[in-house]
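Changelog excerpt

This revision adds worked examples to the README so contributors can see how folded entries look when concatenated. The first example is reproduced verbatim below.
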Amino acid sequence: MATELKDTVSFEDTLGRLDIRLGRVLAAESAPDAPKASYRLTVDFGKFGQRVSVGRFTQHAAGELVGRQVLGVLNFEPREIGGSASEVLILGVQYPGAASGEATFLTPGVEAKLGSKVF
């Protein structure tokens, strides 16, 4: 099902305002109080510290996530999700064949320095 593209926007008003950086998943555990099946991820962003994210990456086994490099938006306001503060949004796309909202994470093609900025 094709959808229309959104209006053209400037870099400065959109991606230029986001602080998207590379991190590594240190821990992944079930987030039992989240409204939908989710993991509570602890992610290391190098000099930007460790942050917690609650996300719907449950098509992956928790152990498969640990050690993986992921991309996260560091400058969104924290969100309360099922009793946990989600401090960073880990970027992902729809997991093939899974229910709406079930995601797989975005990751670089090669290992890169933690905290690296997306540009």
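The second example, added in the same revision:
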Amino acid sequence: MSAMIGHAAIEQALDWPALIAQLRDWYVSGGVEAPDRQVLNIRQPDGSDASLLIMPAWVPGQSIGVKVVTFLPANAGKGRPTINAGYLLFDGETGQMKAALDGDTLTARRTAAASALAASHLARADARRLLVVGTGQLAVSVAEAHSAVRTYDSVEVWGRSRDKAAAIAADLAARGLPATLAEDLETACRAADVISTVTASTRPIIRGDWLKPGSHLDLIGAFKGDMRESDDTAIAQADLFVDLRAGATLAGDLSQPLEAGVIAPDHVLADLTELCRGDHPGRTDATARTVFKSAGMALQDLAAADLAAHHIISG
């Protein structure tokens, strides 16, 4: 009998230090096979576009998993989540289904943990000011995960909706983080040591001119070619890192400057596997502006699902 693992159980099983360590271990050890994710376009009755993403991965003889994600941008204007997901985990030896997991919570946890893992290599050790840009499902998780790898004196939240940003900041403060509302995006960016963006923006909202020397920019939200959170300057001036080259370079933050000739493919210095294995030292200059672009990886989903199932099913 397979288990149904919901939101609360996943959050409890995937505490930040354990999940970040799990991802680091899986990146170092290798062995995960993951075909390119499929992104299928779904034309909606009102003429808008939605997306269906299919992300499989397996470790032969150990685990097999697949995540199915829907992305409906029009939901944002209707007060509904834009992203919904489910995850199926199978025994890699017998092929039997072990668990069905809440894919939304799994995605939020693993995405935030991967960015925090990258920041542990790329953000300055003395980083003290964190800015979260966006008020969607990932905002709280990102703030908590980054706070698990650096000690922040200030966590600011900015969003197009001031009320939503204030609510996120209040939630984080209730969780024990030094969180406040950021009233002005440019002012907050200029002061921040680490900026994490979790929006569905289709045009740049972060300007490179706003990023101080030694800052770290964590770009999460824009995962398709027509989406973008940063401008050309932010990318061109940066020491640039990605979760996976094949996926990240298809997202607009990188695909658009690549197509325009603003950067070349070798501008990407390393991926998360190379950082975790020590093939690249990460930040080597205290004044460098680093950027980490993530588009999501099936490895992260399988690693998180495997950890959650181990804790919950094995007890």
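Reviewer comment on example two: Residues 123-296 form a domain with the Rossmann fold fold (CATH 3.40.50.720). The two ends are 16 Å apart (CA to CA).
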